[in-house]
Amino acid sequence: MDTPRLAVPDRRARRTSFALLFALGGGVCAGACGTDSDTFVLGATTSTYDSGLLEHLIARFNEDHPGLRVRTVIAGSGEALQLGRTGDVDLLLVHAPEAEARFVEAGYAPRRSPVLVNGYVIAGPPSDPARIRGAASPSEAFATLARGEHDFVSRGDSSGTHYREIAFWREAGVTGGGAWYVESGQGQATTLHVASERRAYVLTDVATLAMLSPVLDLDPLVADHPSLRNVYSLLAPRAAARPERAAVFADWLRSGNGRRAIGEFRVRGGPEALFAPWPRDDPTP
């Protein structure tokens, strides 16, 4: 069996993926992009877009700063960090702590600043053929999935979610995959649709799962474990072309109004807040 690893999609798949990512970014910005003189570029993860959080935050930011517009590029954390290296984005909102630390250590940004948090869950078919519901830990659930060769869909895209998935396989002592292990090479929403169609298991953030739950045949099965904490951080790339404008958004997101906007967001108008602002007294993880 091949070792589960960070996927390198074929060239055609990567071109298709990037075309979609930039199109999605334009969609968030449509009608509010402004001109080059009042715009900056935010590189953000697919989970912040797919859950609806990003659109909510940008709308609230524009209420406080009507003269400044956000143009977004939506990508997995690994691809977003690469855009930061090349100066194609002015600010990053990502959730891959180890990759972020390497980004800072290599000198591409002065620091990483945690700004919000939600949770991961392991989801799967409601019948739960692997019987992982309520497992003591994600690694225990992953070990069970591998032993039974139950279908699992990975993002396989160097995203923060993919990095976390790989860590769970390692903790579970799983050294290989097989026909049961499928890599979508796509963002969170597409990966969830693939898992639902295949009646497979998948690692996802709780907010995107909640947003798409009406059209998915997936249940959250393993949740609320400390290792499922999902931290999103801001990084300001040194290669940014418009750092002053990006800093206005970063400062707003950490301010009282930004923190309230994070805490007030509800997925599809639900009763529960699935994102929370980063605790002020919590050290950087």
Structural class: alpha/beta
Order of helices and strands: HEHHEHEHEHEHEHEHEEHHE
Helix percent reads: 40-55%
> Count the strands?
10
Query: Approximately how much beta-strand content do the residues carry?
Result: 15-25%
H/I helix tally: 11
- End-to-end separation in angstroms reads 34 Å
Q: Label the overall shape.
A: globular
Uncertain residue segments: 1-34
Q: What would you say about this model in short?
A:
The chain is α/β, with parallel strands linked by helices and 285 residues long.
Indicate the topology.
Elements: H1 11-29, E1 39-44, H2 46-50, H3 53-64, E2 69-74, H4 77-85, E3 91-94, H5 97-105, E4 113-124, H6 138-148, E5 152-154, H7 160-171, E6 181-183, H8 188-198, E7 201-205, H9 206-212, E8 219-222, E9 229-235, H10 243-254, H11 256-264, E10 276-277
Parallel strand pairs: 1-2, 1-3, 5-6, 5-7
Antiparallel strand pairs: 3-9, 4-7, 4-8, 4-9, 4-10
Helix pairs in contact: 6-7, 10-11
Give an overview in words:
The chain is an alpha/beta fold and 285 residues long. Helices cover 41% and strands 18% of the residues. Strand 5, helix 7 (160-171) and strand 6 form a beta-alpha-beta unit. The longest helix is centred in the N-terminal third of the chain and has 19 residues, at 11-29. Residues 1-34 have low confidence and may be disordered.
Task: Quickly list its features.
about 280 residues, alpha/beta, ten-stranded mixed sheet, 11 helices, about 40% helix, about 20% strand, disordered N terminus
